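User: Look at the shape:
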Amino acid sequence: MQDTLLEPSIVSFERQHIPGGVVLSRAEGWPHRPEDWEMLHTLSEGVVALQDGDVVATALCTPFGDRLVTFNMIIVADSHRGQGLGARLMKALIALAGPRTIQLVATASGYPLYRKMGFVETGRNLQHQGVVSQIPSPSGIASATPADAAAIKALDTANTGLDRAAMWDTLFAVSSVKVIRDGTALLGVAACRDFGRGKVVGPVIAPSADDAKRLISAHLAEHQETFVRIDVPASSGLGEWLETCGLTNVGGGHAMLRGDAPIAASAGAYALASQALG
């Protein structure tokens, strides 16, 4: 029997599978570069479906501490859809997650499957992107220093209920990070890094929407006439303002959860790290 007549084999996602993942994400119209896949692979474990040695599906699982994981980069090649492969990938990821809560951002095509597998919708995320218009640089914003790392991680945990220390360690190495301080206290933070067609801003943690706008503006002011993307919760109230900055709403996704929701001490998460990482 020829291999092409067999079901694709599901194996652990390894670095050598990244080029195949890039092919799949580009076929979906997603902007991820090999470097973007590399970053996610560094933070994650996952599975890949192989047919005759070719990558035909991917799915990653990124842990945030010992209580929650986020699923991302769940892609099935068009040629292999309708064959139950998506469900096989999800079952493999759920096994990797074990008893931990699972979060993900669902596309319209994946939403029905995730509902069947016990995920519930908790909100909507909005994707804004475009070439940045003329943005004045706000006052009161500083660049983070290595000495801020512990305070940034603590602020992030307080506002998300998650342990994203490993993610922040990766972001510090590849991002410009802006902060708001009140004396020695760190009140807000926003990162900006290379991604896809240009830059992505996020995560953004701030004590108020106005402070979130100031942090975002500090990054946008440094990247005028540059293509920038930012993903925000619909509940953030930033959508209309982002439009005035030249960042158009081009869609988004369904925030979904399987298990107990993380408990945050504050509600200052105004932008995702990315749609993949939440």
